[in-house]
């Protein structure tokens, strides 16, 4: 074990840090954007909406992210229709593929979570909104979703950490984010313990920041008078 | 027809009119042919044993429950059989629920301001003023910034009444408004409802509060097995009911 190698690996891994943050935040945001329509479709009474959404959730959660990433990165590029599509600039880049794979994966998890939260809102809430004359959209955005999102907020803080960890899979498709950078460093120094420990500590630090941010958001969003689950 | 006659006809038309109302869950008939007309300003109390269909009845009137058959017209709106047009009521029909159904993520004031602003497009300041006025009317203005879960049941129900009133409803429906309350907060809610009745609001109230029925109602109705068993003035209903079923019911209520 070498103390010098610890120090030496810090700047190398820091170079990958930026990409890890980019992939994590982009994938998390993509997941959030895709999760809402997914959850609404899955919670719908119309089978034509609910069935495909539930199938998507089942399919994505039932297979490894790494496999999904390989399908997107290696698989989609072999289809001519994809190469001709406007999404090709994203899909030909390994970073774009990683964001897409991790984001769509996160969407499935958050979608299922959000669907549960939406269906848990007491029916009296929607009834009160309807009888007051709120339309469907107003009832959803002003009554149902503000409550559903508060319910899932503690789990969303956990989700962004899971997305961060999944972002390390990008190294499998040539992306030099933190894990990728660490692997390059290891192949040069043959010091996996030192290098990966440093990488792990960086991940841990990032996770702590996310946890802090979400705890702050949760506290801000907490409804006065309702007991807080985490306190 | 002269204009005066026309106007008279409009004012004399029923605030609520229900005819041939039926509702079944599968093969179980929970509402079995109800006819009821309520004139503007009239107060009707509906009581009956649990499972008699009284809650279902009032929920059918406000369109929260679909029906199998019958015509319903409330506050000038003809309610479609599938209740799809319930949102057209736009607050003309006020509903007070047993469990308040306040929006827990909004404080009392915002609970009141939400619908006028979204549905009627009332400006923020104006909607705030009328919401405060309404909270004063139900005696809870000092708790305007409190959230529902920081209020007692009675306070929550008063806020819920104020929320409905903010939409200036032509008709108010109450579905067991005091059943979920602690005994000591029942009185404050009934007081608000009595004041509302004195102001001339058209009301249908499903309740077991017989003293309220006696002092406020123009008509008291007993429902049993999805039918109206007795429909009478409060004096007659309580002192010389026509039906044995009513006497049995009143006896049980008194014993409780």
Description:
The complex is a heterodimer of chains A (231) and B (256). By secondary structure, chain A is an all-alpha fold. Chain A has one domain (3-221): MetI-like fold (Orthogonal Bundle), CATH 1.10.3720. Chain A is 80% helix and 0% strand. Chain A has helices at 3-42, 47-61, 65-75, 80-84, 88-91, 94-120, 123-131, 136-166, 178-189, 192-221. Mean pLDDT of chain B is 91; it is low at 1-11. Chain B has 256 residues and is an alpha/beta fold. The longest helix of chain B has 16 residues, at 183-198. Chain B is 38% helix and 24% strand. Chain B has a six-stranded mixed β-sheet with strand order 6-7-8-3-9-10, with helices on both faces. Chain B has a four-stranded antiparallel β-sheet with strand order 2-1-4-5, covered by helices on one side.
Mean pLDDT of chain A: 92
Counted by DSSP, the helix tally of chain B is: 9
CATH architecture of chain A: Orthogonal Bundle
Order of helices and strands of chain A: HHHHHHHHHH
Features:
heterodimer; A: 231 residues; mainly alpha; MetI-like fold; B: 256 residues; alpha/beta; six-stranded mixed beta sheet; four-stranded antiparallel beta sheet; 38% helix; globular
Concise overview:
Chain A is mainly alpha-helical.
Layout: helices, strands, pairs:
The complex is a heterodimer of chains A (231) and B (256).
Chain A: H1 3-42, H2 47-61, H3 65-75, H4 80-84, H5 88-91, H6 94-120, H7 123-131, H8 136-166, H9 178-189, H10 192-221
Helix pairs in contact in A: 1-2, 1-6, 1-8, 1-9, 1-10, 2-6, 3-6, 6-8, 7-8, 8-10, 9-10
Chain B: H1 3-12, E1 16-25, E2 28-38, E3 43-47, H2 54-61, E4 69-74, E5 77-79, E6 93-96, H3 108-119, H4 124-137, H5 153-165, E7 171-175, H6 183-198, E8 202-206, H7 210-216, E9 219-224, E10 227-232, H8 234-239, H9 244-255
Parallel strand pairs in B: 3-8, 3-9, 6-7, 7-8
Antiparallel strand pairs in B: 1-2, 1-4, 4-5, 9-10
């Amino acid at each position: 074990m070498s103390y010098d190698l610890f120090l030496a690996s810090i700047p190398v891994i820091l170079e990958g840090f930026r990409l890890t943050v980019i992939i994590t935040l982009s994938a998390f945001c993509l997941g959030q954007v895709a999760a809402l329509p997914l959850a609404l479709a899955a919670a719908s009474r119309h089978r034509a909406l609910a069935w495909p959404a539930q199938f998507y959730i089942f399919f994505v959660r039932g297979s490894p992210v790494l496999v999904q990433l390989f399908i997107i990165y290696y698989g989609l590029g072999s289809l001519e229709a994809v190469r001709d599509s406007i999404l090709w600039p994203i899909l030909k880049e390994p970073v774009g593929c990683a964001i897409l794979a991790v984001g769509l994966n996160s969407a499935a998890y958050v979608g299922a979570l959000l669907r549960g939260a939406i269906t848990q809102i007491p029916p009296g809430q929607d009834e009160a909104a309807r009888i007051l004359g709120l339309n469907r959209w107003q009832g959803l955005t002003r009554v149902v979703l503000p409550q559903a999102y508060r319910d899932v907020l503690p789990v969303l803080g956990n989700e962004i950490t899971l997305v961060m960890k999944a972002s390390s899979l990008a190294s499998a498709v040539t992306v030099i984010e933190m894990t990728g950078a660490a692997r390059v460093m290891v192949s040069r120094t043959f010091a996996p313990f030192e290098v990966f420990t440093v990488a792990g500590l960086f991940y841990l630090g990032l996770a702590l920041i996310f946890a802090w941010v979400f705890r702050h958001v949760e506290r801000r969003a907490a409804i006065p008078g309702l007991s807080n689950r985490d306190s | 027809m002269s204009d005066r006659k026309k106007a008279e006809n409009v004012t004399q038309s029923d605030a609520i009119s229900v005819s041939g109302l039926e509702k079944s869950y599968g093969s179980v008939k929970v509402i079995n042919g109800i006819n009821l007309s309520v004139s503007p300003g009239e107060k009707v109390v509906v009581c009956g044993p649990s499972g008699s269909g009284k809650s279902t009845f009032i929920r059918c009137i406000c369109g929260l429950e679909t029906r199998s058959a019958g015509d319903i017209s409330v506050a000038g709106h003809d309610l479609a059989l599938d209740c799809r047009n319930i949102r057209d009521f736009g607050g003309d029909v006020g509903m007070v629920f047993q469990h308040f159904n306040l929006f827990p993520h909004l404080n009392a004031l915002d609970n009141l301001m939400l619908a006028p602003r979204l549905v009627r497009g009332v400006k923020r300041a104006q909607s705030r003023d009328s919401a405060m006025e309404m909270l004063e009317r139900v005696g809870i203005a000092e708790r305007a910034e409190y959230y529902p879960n920081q209020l007692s049941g009675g306070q929550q129900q008063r806020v819920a009444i104020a929320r409905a009133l903010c939409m200036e409803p032509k008709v108010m429906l109450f579905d067991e408004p005091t059943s979920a309350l602690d005994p000591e907060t029942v009185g404050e809610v009934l007081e608000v409802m009595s004041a509302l009745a004195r102001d001339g609001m058209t009301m249908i109230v499903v309740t077991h509060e017989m003293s309220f029925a006696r002092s406020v109602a123009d008509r008291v109705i007993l429902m049993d097995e999805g039918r109206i068993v007795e429909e009478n003035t409060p004096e007659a209903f309580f002192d010389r009911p026509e039906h044995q079923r009513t006497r049995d019911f009143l006896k049980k209520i008194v014993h409780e």
